[in-house]
Design goal:
The structure holds two protein chains of two kinds. Chain A is α+β, with helices and mostly antiparallel strands. Helix content of chain A is 28%, strand content 24%. Chain A folds into three domains: 120 residues, Aldehyde oxidase/xanthine dehydrogenase, molybdopterin binding domain (Aldehyde Oxidoreductase, domain 4); 171 residues, Aldehyde oxidase/xanthine dehydrogenase, a/b hammerhead (Aldehyde Oxidoreductase, domain 3); 319 residues, Aldehyde oxidase/xanthine dehydrogenase, molybdopterin binding domain (Aldehyde Oxidoreductase, domain 4, 2-Layer Sandwich), CATH 3.30.365.10. Chain B is α+β, with helices and mostly antiparallel strands. Chain B folds into two domains: 76 residues, Beta-grasp domain (Ubiquitin-like (UB roll), Roll), CATH 3.10.20; 72 residues, DNA polymerase, domain 1, CATH 1.10.150.120. The radius of gyration of chain B is 15 Å and the shape is globular. In chain B, helix 3 packs across helix 6. Helices cover 36% and strands 15% of the residues of chain B. The chains are: A alpha+beta, B alpha+beta.
């Protein structure tokens, strides 16, 4: 057992008291004098021309804001310029914003919104991936049925396939997953002395700032964005908050009032981004020694009506889908398909959960096909330190997949449970395993080319140190862990470091709070800035900055998809045990176990919180979180219908950290926020497969699906 | 038509003129400035708005204010002044039971409601008591552990009782 590093010792959350006592002010808790509310009118058609919008007679104090009020550019600035802040003459998904009504009374606004009539001329909509790909005319976006299409090769798959002794093929399908953060999207905009200040619930203050500058057409100096305590994000507050922020800001300009825009829960589920549904085909080719010599993988994702982050999510899907395995010859392709549905986007794991579900279930299926123990089969293909990844990047830090696997198998008693024969007539028990990674930080060289993060430290006369970063505190503990890195490096008590919520008027841009980059990238910069400060500690005032530098020897070719897809990797393995009722097909989770290599944990209590929370979301994704669409409309638009795990749905989770140090991260830390979600669903699905003896090929594994498999599969 | 409605709010007698069907949550947040209870769904599903009415846990977002006429209403702002809260707070901190904090006030009220009627809960009792309060961050484990510790180490703070009914 490793001795715990001092940085890992739990220090207590710095934001604990204000949250525990209920004193923390979330956006909905603010009520500046003279505040107006705002409600949004949304498209009720998946694809239609807007012929006319008929307003009722409005009270004097109610003001309508729409595309005509956008003085800058009516396009959300995110990767691809395609999504408007307000629809103008066409809507492309149910829930797309058309206008906002603002006034002093929210109940009155709701009635006004309900009484507005929109005359639509309906157009034929594309509602599924299959429909998108089969359409030959009336393409809904550009010249192709997809927003982006990628392909990469490793080795020489064609030659290898020719030499294969056996080939095994699978097709997997996954559904939507809704972030279901407890605090809905919320923004408060206020204009004062020519400056627009927007405060609210968000992951990326500088994304919101960029959106405001673009929509308002204002200079950076006239726009300020401040994050408030945020009731969870999980990716759902990565890019989406730009839209309510701009709507609230435009309403504030037009009325001269502070404007609060808080989504209803149903509205939030209907119109904000979710995890991409996917279809993934995997074909493995093996030689006579049961070794995989080539793989062909095709990934299709349902991007919805606008591209948004779908290209970047697809990159992560295609770089993750080869799994934790060394295969010399690969052909991997992916397309993010355009459909007339709510845009899909970021959700913790960012394409990883779909990819690892597919590859891990496929590994189970191949092992069964060739009659080899699935864990042994995996182990013979595990990646190792020094190996080249699917994209040809070098794995520089240690890769402890064997140790991780052994750790979780011991913890869960996997082999004993797996080999126990099923009792006839009783409930069906099963146990399943998954191994996975998460690439930490932005894809390829984007940390250098797109983000270029900066952090700043200021020491005052009283020897307190102010830490300025744009990393948002979402509950994951960013304020505490980044402050700990500064305190540890400066060798001062944690209480001497002061770090508030990010404010674009004060903080340098250390990038968005996404991609498991906060500790690895921002934390490293905090450590560097603190080291510089340490050299000048005796000076009365001292200010140090640190800028991201792309590490030497790394490179990535975005067009060819070759090189270091990520700066660093974190690794994990999960085991889940289930019990399936052979009559009702209900599935009960009996146990969940994990081993993770996140490098050095920066605070073991906070890290444990990420494990429990992430795995619970992963288990929800695996078996209970159903969001179906009918004619482009979500069928589950409340927390009654869209079910996330309650305290009774999940069991105790036991886990270990297998620590091997990252060569890049501060104190040897890797990333961890997303890793913890990625492997739970495939382990659960493998457990159900083990219980019922039928191949599982879709998520979520609901009782209805188990029934279908058991009776007809 | 507004009614005069009287109740005991955090041990203080209050009277207000209000639409009797106005939600207790809006009343607490907007008329009394008690913003600890949150609006997470507005349909009684998430429990972020949970408060105690005559010692029972209710979702204040779907409780009309007239329903608390003559009753005692206890919110996180009242509870946080008690030694029981100090114990819960110590245990929540130690277990790492708070992340984003949005569900926390409701969770703490659920813990208080449980411990007041069952001061020796099993893990299953705690999980059942929290099952109307959603948390998307913690996976519940740390919250369950915190309440378990509070029950053990806070002996005497809650009346020694066991009432299996909810």
């Amino acid at each position: 057992m490793l001795e715990m590093k001092s940085i890992s010792v739990p220090a207590g959350r710095l934001d604990f008291s204000e949250k525990m006592t209920g004193a923390a002010k979330f956006c909905q808790d603010l009520r500046p004098h003279g505040m107006f509310y705002a409600k949004t009118l949304r498209s009720s058609k998946p694809r239609a021309k807007i012929r006319a919008v008929r307003l009722p007679l409005l009270p004097d104090n109610v003001v309508i804001v729409d595309w005509r009020d956008v003085r800058g550019k009516n396009i959300v600035p995110i990767v691809t310029d395609d999504q408007p802040f307000f629809a103008r003459d066409q809507v492309n998904y149910i829930g797309e914003p058309i206008l906002v009504a603002t006034g002093p009374n929210p109940d009155e606004l709701r009635k006004i919104i309900d009484s507005i009539q929109v005359d639509y001329e309906e157009l034929p909509a594309v509602l599924t991936i299959e429909e998108a790909l089969s359409r030959t005319s009336d393409i809904i976006y550009g010249d192709h049925p997809w927003f982006v299409s990628y392909e990469y090769l490793k080795g020489d798959p064609d030659t290898a396939i020719h030499e294969a002794a056996i080939s095994v093929e699978d097709e997997f399908h996954t559904g939507y997953q809704e972030q279901a953060y407890l605090e809905p999207q919320s923004m408060l905009a206020e204009q004062k002395d020519g400056v627009m200040t927007v405060r609210g619930s968000m992951q990326c203050p500088f994304y919101v700032e960029e959106a405001l500058m673009q929509a308002l057409g204002w200079e950076r100096t006239r726009v300020r964005v401040i994050q408030l305590p945020t009731g969870g994000g999980f990716g759902g507050k990565e890019d989406y908050p730009s839209i309510p922020a701009v709507h609230a800001a435009l309403a504030a300009i037009k009325t001269g009032r502070p404007v609060m825009l808080v989504y209803d829960r149903g509205e939030d589920i209907m119109c904000t981004t979710k995890r991409h549904p996917s279809c993934i085909r995997v074909k493995s080719h093996l030689d006579a020694n049961n070794h995989i010599i080539a793989r062909e993988i095709e990934v299709l994702s349902d991007a919805g009506a606008y591209c948004g982050l779908s290209g970047v999510v697809l990159q992560r899907m295609i770089y993750s889908v080869p799994g934790v395995y060394q295969v010399q010859n690969l052909r991997v392709s992916g397309r993010a398909c355009a459909t007339n549905k709510v845009p899909s986007g970021a959700f913790r794991g960012f394409g990883g959960p779909q990819a690892f579900f597919a590859i891990e279930m496929h590994m189970e299926h191949v092992a069964r096909e060739i009659g080899v123990d699935p864990l042994l089969f995996r182990k013979t293909h595990f990646l190792r330190q020094g190996d080249l990844t699917a994209t040809g990047g070098r794995l520089r830090s240690p890769v402890e997949l064997e140790a991780i696997t052994d750790s979780v198998c011991t913890l869960s008693d996997y082999y004993e449970k797996r080999s126990t024969p099923k009792e006839p007539g009783g409930k069906l028990r099963g146990i399943g395993f998954s191994a996975f990674f998460h690439g930490c930080g932005f894809t390829g060289a984007d940390e250098r080319d797109i983000i270029s993060a900066r952090v700043r430290l200021c020491k005052g006369e009283d020897e307190t140190v102010n830490l300025y970063v744009s990393s948002a505190e979402l509950g994951q503990g960013a304020i505490t862990t980044l402050s700990k890195i500064a305190a540890e490096t400066l060798d001062i008590p944690l209480s001497q470091v002061l770090c508030g919520y990010p404010d674009t008027g004060v903080c340098p841009n250390s990038g968005p709070t996404v991609a498991s980059r906060t500790i690895l990238v921002v934390g490293r910069l905090v450590q560097e800035a603190a080291l510089k400060m340490k050299e000048h500690w005796d000076e009365a005032f001292c200010e140090t900055e640190s800028h991201f530098r792309y590490p030497g020897g790394f490179s990535f070719d975005k067009k060819l998809h070759t090189g270091d897809a990520y700066l660093e990797y974190a690794w994990g393995a999960n085991v889940v045990e289930v019990e399936v009722d052979p009559i009702t097909y209900s599935c009960n989770i009996l146990g969940a176990w994990a081993a993770f290599d996140i490098g050095t944990p920066i605070d073991t209590t906070i890290a444990a919180g990420q494990v429990h929370g992430g795995m619970t979301q992963g288990l929800g994704y695996g078996c209970m979180e159903v969001l179906d669409m009918k004619a482009g409309r979500p069928l589950q638009c409340s927390l009654t219908d869209y079910m996330i795990p309650t305290s009774l749905d999940v069991c105790k989770i036991d886990f270990r950290f297998v620590q091997s140090e990252s060569v890049l991260g501060p104190y040897g830390a890797r990333g961890m926020g997303e890793l913890t979600l990625v492997g739970a669903a495939p382990a659960l699905a493998a457990a159900v497969e083990n219980a019922i003896g039928k191949p599982v090929t879709q998520l979520p594994v609901t009782s209805e699906y188990i029934m279908e498999l058991s009776r007809h599969g | 038509m507004d009614n005069a409605i009287c109740f005991l709010l955090n041990n203080r007698s209050v009277t207000l003129q209000a639409d009797p069907l106005r939600s207790l949550l809006d009343t607490l947040r907007e008329d009394f400035g008690l913003t600890g209870a949150k609006k997470g769904c507005g349909e009684g599903e998430c429990g972020a708005c949970a408060v105690l009415v005559d010692g029972r846990l209710v979702n204040s977002c779907i409780t009309p204010v007239i329903a608390v006429e003559g009753k005692t209403v206890f919110t996180i702002e009242g509870l946080r002044e008690t030694p029981r809260f100090q114990e819960l707070s110590r245990c929540f901190a130690q277990a790492g039971a708070v992340q984003c904090g949005f569900c926390t006030p409701g969770m703490v009220m659920a813990a208080e409601a449980l411990l007041m009627r069952n001061s020796f809960p099993t893990e299953q009792d705690i999980r059942t008591a929290l099952s109307g309060n959603l948390c998307r961050c913690t996976g519940y484990s740390a919250i369950v552990a915190a309440i378990m510790t509070a029950a053990k180490e806070g002996e005497g703070l809650w009346p020694a009782s066991f009432d299996p009914g909810i």
